[in-house]
Amino acid sequence: MSEPVASADALAGTAPEPGVPKPDPILVIDGVRRSFGGLLAVDVDHLEVQRGVITALIGPNGAGKTTLFNLLTGFDKADGGRWSFDGRAIAGAPPHRIAQFGMVRTFQLTKALARLTVLENMKLGAVHQRGERFFPAVVRTLWREQEREIEARAERLLEQFNLAHMRDEYAGTLSGGQRKLLELARALMVEPRLVMLDEPMAGVNPALTQLVLEHVVALRDANMSVVFVEHDMDVVMTISDWVVCLGEGSVIAEGPPDSIVANSEVIDAYLGSEHGAPVATEAGP
Amino acid sequence: MDFATIFGNALRSALGADAAIYALAAIGLNLHFGYTGLLNFGQVGFMIVGAYGLAVSVATWGWSMWVGIGVGLGLAVVLALALGLPTLRLRADYFAITTVASAEILRILARSKALEDWTGGVYGLQRIAPSFYDLNPIPRGRYGPGTFSFPHQQLWVAIVTWALVALCTVLVALLVRSPWGRVLKAIREDEDAVRSLGKNVVGYKMQSLVVGGMIGALAGIMLAVNGSAVNADSFQPTVTFFAYAVLILGGVATRVGPVVGAALFWFLISGVESFVREAGSEDLLPNFLSGPNAPGAVSNTLVGLLLIGLLLFRPQGIFGNRREMELSV
Fold first, then answer.
1. Mean pLDDT score of chain A, rounded to an integer?
2. Percentage of residues in chain B with pLDDT exceeding 90?
3. B180 touches chain A (CB under 8 A)
4. Rounded distance, CA A60 to CA A2, Å?
5. pLDDT tens per residue across span A201-235
6. Which three-class secondary structure state does DSSP give residue A89?
7. Facing B183 at nearest CB: one of A97, A132, A172
8. Closest residue by Cα to residue B206 from A134, A90, A31
């Protein structure tokens, strides 16, 4: 695969229009639909996510961002459509298989495993553990070596995420922001190529927001691709290389961040109402 | 009032085969409920298939005891799969409802007229374990002082059952300290998080259900061996709830909780029963507390009150960690 380029450059020649092909897509989505009763929650004709960049997924409440996340990661069943991750068709695969392929998600409501310690949370994230199979589990010598390696990797990550001092505390004792950091660090234990973050800043106090942001940017610098759902446009503008805007389940616009804030459809659907931008001329009936 | 008699009775129960049988049932339940978070309200169902697997094999078909034990354990695997495959994908409450119902279905089937040729219906089956008692190396006699004494056959069952308890305790301890056990505990906390980290949650829940169910079947097998008989009506749903009481008393998700809980539970049940019987025979109790059913009723009531008190003042049980228990999930 291509070397990591100064990320935004790779997309320099890509037109800011819905469904545009990307030079090196890691995720390709075709005709994904999901309806709840009469409501068509997700209806994405075609969307590609570029490898090695940070893609923001925005849209008003109810636009289908989280539903799309759930569909792509196997947590919900699509009514139809295909999508592939790194060239492998993964539609219909169960969530644990998708995670094993290297596409890992986090949740809007943080899921720290409260009565496990921070370190146990981390070690759980490692895939292909011998000791996680039933019969080898009984005999420690069969998995002790691997467990040590996993623990060393977990400790390095905890160090990076400023959680090392909490390693033996129950995860349930962490603050909201620390839980977000733990969830992010734990996802990295899977060694993913694509990280899907559902509102990584939600419920994080302002002092920690900057830290979480830095970690998200660090993922890209470590050669990972990131898709994240976010409401705060300042955050989106600061860290994303590409922005996809959903409205009523479909992609209504995509492009570099500055093209998105200028896009009249996005302003209509979303920004106008939330940012109080001067949209009077666009909003008339 | 003879306190030595009361104490002897209580201690005999605490160290006898019945307590060990409940310890086994609770060890299986601990794997299900304590470590995996599976609300199994039908542990007695696994005991039924274990007991009847052995009893029907030996008493009806004349097979050897060892084959019968294999049948009992095999049926536990089948029951676990039959329970788990349709329900483990669903929300936890569906699983819980299914387990209660299936255990009752099994009990009612075992006592039904239709299956009388195999199971003995309401009469049950007898002479199940003569070959178990043939293996008894302990010379004929009574062992122990006063009321705390066992006939050699009872001593033999108690020793074997407690040995099985030790074996299962060690097995579960080895399992839960491993990465496998870590996945189970994580599933207890939040299934979706575990899925998102690449673990096959349904597969792990199934493994937990099978292993804990087999330990439950072992409890049933030893129950059948203990009386050398089975009767469907000894497998009421209350058996499961007593096993829960044992588990909560000792400490949920602790290694030795089920063992100490079982001994203590039986010590209290028998002690109170024996006390009421003694006091009644000396006319120390008001009328409504005497009579043939009083000791059992009073001891159940007092143990119930004790459990309520325990939940109020020491909800983590004897061995549990209160700080862990009180964490918001």
1. 90
2. 79
3. yes
4. 34
5. 888 888 888 888 999 999 999 999 999 999 888 88
6. strand
7. A132
8. A134
pLDDT-derived band at B146 (thresholds 50, 70, 90) equals confident
Higher-confidence residue of B16 and B290: namely: B16
Q: What is the pLDDT of residue A8?
A: 59
**Residue B241 placed within a domain:** yes
Tell me, yes or no, whether B21 lies in a domain. Answer: yes
Is the distance from CB of A190 to CB of A102 less than 8 angstroms? yes
Contacts for B287 with CB less than 8 Å, ≥ 6 apart: none
Residues of A in contact with B200 (CB under 8 A): 94, 96
- Least confident segment among A44-58, B42-56, B312-326: B312-326
Question: DSSP assignment, residue A3?
Answer: P
- In a mutational test of the A interface, the residue from B167, B182, B187 whose CB has the highest number of chain A CBs within 10 Å is B182
The total number of structural domains in chain B stands at 1
pTM here is 0.92
pLDDT tens digit sequence for A99-109: 999 999 999 88
For residue B300, the domain's CATH number is: 1.10.3470
Q: At what angle do helices B152-176 and B257-281 cross, to 10 degrees?
A: 150
CA B99 – CA B87 distance, rounded (Å): 10
Residue numbers of the domain that contains B220: 3-137+149-325
Task: Give the distance from residue A278's alpha carbon to the nearest chain B alpha carbon, in angstroms.
Answer: 41
- Name the interface residues of A facing B (CB cutoff 8 Å): 73, 75, 94-97, 99-100, 104-107, 111-116, 120-121, 123-125, 127, 129-134, 137-138, 140, 143, 147, 170, 172-173, 183, 186-187, 189-190
Which among A101, A117, A124, A179 is the top mutation candidate for probing chain B, defined by the most B β-carbons within 10 Å of its own β-carbon?
A124
Contact A186 B197 (CB under 8 A): yes
Q: Provide the shortest C-alpha distance from residue A115 to chain B (in Å).
A: 6
In a domain, B133, yes or no: yes
Asked whether the beta carbons of B12 and B148 are under 8 A apart, the reply is: yes
For A116-120, what is the mean pLDDT? 97
The span from the CA of A48 to the CA of A30, in Å, is 9
Residue B170 sits at the chain A interface (C-beta within 8 Å): no
CA B277 to chain CA centroid, nearest Å: 26
Put simply, the answer to whether A190 touches B201 (Cβ < 8 Å) is no
For residue B144, tell me if it sits in a domain: no
